[in-house]
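Q: I have 474 residues here and want to know how they pack in 3D. Can you give me a structure?
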Amino acid sequence: MKICKKIIKFSLVFVLLSFQSSAVNSKTAPSSFADLAEKLMPSVVNISTTQTIKTSANSLPFQFPPGSPFEDMFKEFNKPTERKATALGSGFIIDKKGLVVTNNHVIQGAEDIFVSVNGSKEYKAKIIGTDPYMDLAVLEIDSNEKFQPVEFGDSDKARVGDWVVAIGNPFGFGGTVTAGIISARNRDVGLTRYDDFIQTDASINQGNSGGPLFDLNGNVIGINTAIIAPGSSGSIGIGFAIPSNPASKVIDQLIKYGETKRGWLGVRIQKVTKEIAEVEKLENPTGALVASVSEKSPAAKAGIKAGDIILEFDGKKVDTMRTLPKLVAETEVGKRVIVKIWRNQKLISKKVLLGRLESSEQFKAEKESGPDKSKYIEEKNLKILVRDLNEDDILKRKLPKNTTGVVVTEILPDSPLMFVEVNDVIVELQKKNVKSSKQFSSLIKDIIAKNEKTLYLAIYNSSNQRSYITVKLK
C-alpha cells in the first residue's frame, strides 16, 4: 500500500489490496446485484507481484577509517542483504487474448507478475505498457486460453447519484463485490498530473487498486485507484476512480505503441487568483496564467508569452489551471489548434501546432530524474515513506517560495516519528536544509553512522505552522 497525500487530517491511500465501490446507473436501487456480479466476476483478476529489495545500510553503530585492519574482521556484518517483497492489487480483462488493465503503482518495480482469474487458475503476465502520469498499466496474460472481457462505458454520462459496483481483491481475499453511488465528479486531489477522478462511497480497501468500477449495465466507467483514509486506516466511504473515457485513450496508446503520445504545448502555468483577475481586468478568476514558455516549444513558436492567460484551448474552456494539462494531453499530436488568450486586457487567438510531450526536453529531464522513483522513497530507519516537495505543493499550501523538503506520505508501524503526521513537510534535519528525499535518506544514514541518538527536525504541519521537534532513535 502506498499513501499519497494527506488532505486536511486524512491521507490519500493507494488501494493495492481492495477498492470496494458501488455503482449502478439506475433511478431506483436494484433488489440485488447478484446477476451482475455473477456475470462480471470472470473478467476481474487478482494481481500479485514480487520484487527484490536490496539493503546495504551499515548494521554497525560505528564506522572504521579506510584501511583499518578491523574492516575485514567485521565485513560480514556489512554485506548487502536482499528480501522479497510482495504486493497485491486488482485488474480486469479487456480482450479475449488476455489483456489486463490495472494501475501502474500495482506493478511498478515488479520482477514477477501473477494474475489469478476468477479466483482459481493463476497465470504469469508481462507488461505491455505503463503510464505513471495517469497511473495506468496494461498487462498480457501468458496463455493461449480465451478469456472473458468487459467493455468500457461512457464515463461522461455517469451522473452523481448513479449506482456503481466495484469488484476487486481487498486484503488479498480475492473476488469481492461492493456497491455504492457516484458521490462526485471531476475530483482533483493532487494524486496524478491529470486528476479528474470519479468519487464513490463504495467500500474500498487495500488491494482494490486497478480494479473496475462498473455501471449497472456491466460496463467499466472507472478504474479504482485511491481512497481517503484517516491515519492509514481502511475505507471511510471516500474512494476515487480514473474515469473510463480518458483512461481508455491512454490504454489504446499503450496497446498500440507500448507508450503514450500526448499533446505538448510547452508552458509552465499557475493559478489565476482573484487578485490577478482584478489586475488583468478579468470578470472571474478563470484560465491558466502562463508563468514561462519553453524555448522552441509549440507555444513559443505560436507567439504565446509569459503573462498571457489561456482561457480556451481547441474550442474548450479552460476553467482552472488544472484543466489545461488534461485538455492538451488528450489532443492528438500534430493537430493545429486555436488557443484563446487574454493579453493586455484583450482576447486574442493563436494557432498552435501541438508537439509530443514524450519528445520534449522537459519530459526527458523528468524521466531521467526519475519522478516515480523519487515520488515515494522509503526511509527504512525511520519507517516512513516520503516524496520530494514540489512547486504544486508550495503553491497549494502557500509555503514560502523557496521552501525545500520532503512530504511524509506514509508512517509505518513502530516508526519513531510519534509527533509527525502524514502530509507534514520536513524542511530541516540537524539544522541542515532538506533538499530532496534522496538527500534526506543520506543525512539519516550519516547520523546513524555517527551514532547520534537524537534527530532534530523542523517541519511544517498541515496548517503550515513551522515548528521544531526532537526524535529519539532506538
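Q: Anything worth noting?
A: The two ends are 25 Å apart (CA to CA). The chain has three domains: 1-259, 263-358, 376-472.
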